Backbone:
């Protein structure tokens, strides 16, 4: 099978990836770049587990071919949320994104399978609307299914992260 | 998924020329939400895929002398937010807002939706009731296809393999016309409709009906116009008796299938119920 060289910018780094042209962005992220934070769910566009950001916009990576992205498009996955080395001064600890802290504190993740997609959808929301209403939060994550939490803790975590920023 | 060559033309003319080279082994891709799934399931095996996303003029949404023109590459999300779409008919904007989830709406396009021709989709129903006309182009031809001639059968349109949908045009509505779209979703909000109904009516100063359109989704192999029901309303007041008669005629015009969203019998009954609700809203 002929692989093609793709240029991808992921989490601030440029990658040249040899991938088959028919592989989805989800497959390339997980299998070529070993960024397994982004989850395989339904692969039918229904669950949102595979949500990543492309230039800040949430996109279903299971229905996107890398070839559909502009060369300079910036892909952000859940691995790009936390900032390495920006934890406590003088340490090389990782600083979690306020959304990640709030999800942990509010119990917004149970099995955690939906969490990367939820975090990315929530980040896109807060980046464009720093003080969303409960309705706006519900709308923003309405493409993301969670089988565990019943959503209330997720709404609360997103509200808490909004306040923390 | 099978491998294929992926091409991304910059202009419509380039896309049409590429398509004309090998129409039978080429598929165009707009948002990819339908085609990527079909390729992954190995249900379609194109040798070439032509991505349309760079052809920016196909995204345009705007008023024309005759009414409204919706570019084939406009996403459901952009159409739902468009002031021009809302200004033409608020029911049309809410139809686009009723498609799937926010994720799909921001990626999937009008042209992909129409060409995919799943009869349970939402936009075709309201567009039919608004007398929509598809504008198609090939390298050598341009033609206008009224939407009820576009949908031929389940997942089948009258587009030729070398044709692209470039837009949908909607004529201006009669003065005072009222429109609604009802999507019956007994299971979850992000589902396809079990059945759906769009109704557009206008009445004169005496309350007599001068214009009636009723279209149904999920009710047969293609989105349907309930023409006998429409005719039954003309020149009548839209009272309870007229609405009940039209609803029964609309139900009789359906030809649904049994599936996870309900039995054929249930869907036919619901087509009547939701036609009556739609008509009451616009009466
Ligand atoms: C999870 C999920 C839920 C959904 N729920 C709903 C729903 O509730 N209601 C609803 O209405 N729809 C629903 N859909 C369907 C969705 O609206 C369609 O998948 C979408 O509109 C297709 O658009 P696209 O741009 O992604 O098309 P693509 O996948 O790119 O293409 C679809 C087909 O159209 C052809 N095509 C695309 N553009 C053109 C063009 N300009 N000219 C000619 N042919 C073209 C392609 O060759 C292909 O055959 C859902 C889809 C998914 C995945
Ligand atoms: S894996 Fe992409 S939406 Fe479910
Ligand atoms: S925490 Fe399990 S699916 Fe959401």
Residues:
């Amino acid at each position: 099978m002929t692989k093609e060289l793709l240029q991808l910018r992921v989490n601030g780094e440029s990658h040249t990836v040899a991938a088959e042209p028919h592989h989805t962005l989800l497959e390339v992220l997980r299998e070529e770049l070993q960024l397994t934070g982004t989850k395989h769910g339904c692969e039918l566009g229904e669950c949102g587990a595979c949500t990543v950001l492309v230039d800040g916009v949430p996109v279903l990576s299971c229905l996107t071919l890398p070839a559909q992205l502009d060369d300079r498009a910036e892909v952000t996955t859940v691995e790009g949320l936390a900032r390495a080395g920006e934890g406590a001064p003088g340490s090389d600890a990782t600083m979690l994104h306020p959304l990640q802290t709030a999800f942990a504190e509010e119990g917004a993740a149970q099995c955690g399978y939906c969490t990367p997609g939820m975090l990315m959808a929530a980040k896109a929301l807060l980046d464009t609307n720093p003080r969303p209403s409960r309705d706006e939060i519900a709308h923003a994550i309405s493409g993301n299914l969670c089988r565990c939490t019943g959503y209330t803790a997720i709404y609360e975590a997103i509200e808490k992260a909004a306040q923390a920023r | 998924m099978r491998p294929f060559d992926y091409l991304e033309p910059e202009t419509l003319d380039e896309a049409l020329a590429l398509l004309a080279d090998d129409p039978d082994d080429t598929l165009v891709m707009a948002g990819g939400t339908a085609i990527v799934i079909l390729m992954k399931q190995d249900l379609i095996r194109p040798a070439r895929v032509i991505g349309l996303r760079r052809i920016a003029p196909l995204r345009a949404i705007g008023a024309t002398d005759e009414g409204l023109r919706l570019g084939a590459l406009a996403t459901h999300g952009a159409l739902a937010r468009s002031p021009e779409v809302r200004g033409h008919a608020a029911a049309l904007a809410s139809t686009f807002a009723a498609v799937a989830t926010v994720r799909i709406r921001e990626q999937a396009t009008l042209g992909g939706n129409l060409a995919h021709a799943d009869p349970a989709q939402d936009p075709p129903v309201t567009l039919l009731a608004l007398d929509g006309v598809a504008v198609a182009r090939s390298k050598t031809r341009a033609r206008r296809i009224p939407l009820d001639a576009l949908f031929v059968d389940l997942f089948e349109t009258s587009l030729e393999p070398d044709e692209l949908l470039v837009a949908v045009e909607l004529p201006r509505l009669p003065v005072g016309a009222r429109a609604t779209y009802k999507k019956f979703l007994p299971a979850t909000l992000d589902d396809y409709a079990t059945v759906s109904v769009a109704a557009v009516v206008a009445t004169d100063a005496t309350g007599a009906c001068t214009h009636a359109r009723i279209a149904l989704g999920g009710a047969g192999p293609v989105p349907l116009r309930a023409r006998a029901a429409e005719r039954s309303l003309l020149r009548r007041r839209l009272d309870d008796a007229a609405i009940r008669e039209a609803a029964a005629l609309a139900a009789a015009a359906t030809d649904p299938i049994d599936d996870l969203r309900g039995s054929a019998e249930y869907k036919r009954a619901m087509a009547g119920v939701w036609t009556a609700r739609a008509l009451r809203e616009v009466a």
